[in-house]
Amino acid sequence: MKLKSEAGYALKELIQDVGIPKEIHTDGAKELTAGMWKQICRDADIKVSQTEKDSPWQNCTEVEIRELKRHVRHFLARMACPLVLWDFCCLYTVELRNRIARPLPQLKGRTPYEMLTGNTPDVSKFLEFTWYQPIWYYEPDVFPKQNKNITRWLGIAHRVGQAMCYWILPSSGVPIARSTIQAITPKELELENDKQQIQSYDSVVNEKLNHDPSVLQEFHLYREDEDPVDIDDNVLLDPDAAMPNVDNVEVDSYDELLLT
């Protein structure tokens, strides 16, 4: 989406992929209460409700969005990838978190994906590759030549190709969808020739995407032995636990509260 007003398209996509929700609870943003969003909810007979102004603690989703942002920053920093790819990283992280069962009473031991759709999630697409992992991809060539190139993995291409089709980033810096990819083995990663190919690829891509690795230093929010998936999720056990004392909150500090 390029504009907030296009939020209704996301709701349409949810209806196409999952079905019509019985109820939607949002904040008071115009793009979630008026315009296209409001019309779609009317046409689909979706019951809508919203939080009180300046009361983000009334929507448990706010906590999940905060943790999603921290998880995305973790992936970006760990793999030192260009910030312009944050949208691919965010989509991958959302899909990953939706397929992980967490110790929350609301989930009843199931994953968010299963609670929403009623189906057991297929995690096969998430097992072989991880975010921005260096991989091989193959392009058609005249036999017996083999056109094998270095690229990096950006996530699952749901609406392109067949089952195991993925978004990858070739040296052109323009993401493409391909199923003809293969993981680079640990032994290959130790070979000097392959190391040089990866370094050369990273150098070309970083230059094309105007990537400055130093900007990622502030994103090191997690220790190496820390699992970003489980951080602060237990806040949802008690929704009121995230609620500040209103009497002690100045009007100008609301924005700060949203970021903490």
Task: List the SSEs and their pairings.
Layout: H1 7-17, E1 23-26, H2 35-43, E2 47-50, H3 61-79, H4 86-98, H5 112-117, H6 124-127, E3 134-139, E4 147-156, E5 166-169, E6 176-178, E7 181-183, H7 186-190, H8 192-208, H9 254-259
Parallel strand pairs: 1-2
Antiparallel strand pairs: 3-4, 3-7, 4-5, 5-6
Helix pairs in contact: 1-2, 3-4
Protein architecture, described:
- By secondary structure, the protein is α+β, with helices and mostly antiparallel strands.
- It folds into two domains: 1-58, Nucleotidyltransferase, domain 5, CATH 3.30.420.10; 60-224, no CATH class.
- It has nine helices and seven strands.
- It has helices at 7-17, 35-43, 61-79, 86-98, 112-117, 124-127, 186-190, 192-208, 254-259, and strands at residues 23-26, 47-50, 134-139, 147-156, 166-169, 176-178, 181-183.
- A five-stranded antiparallel sheet has the order 6-5-4-3-7. The protein has a two-stranded parallel ribbon with strand order 1-2.
- A hairpin with a 7-residue loop joins strand 3 and strand 4.
- The radius of gyration is 21 Å and the shape is elongated.
- Mean pLDDT is 84; it is low at 221-260.
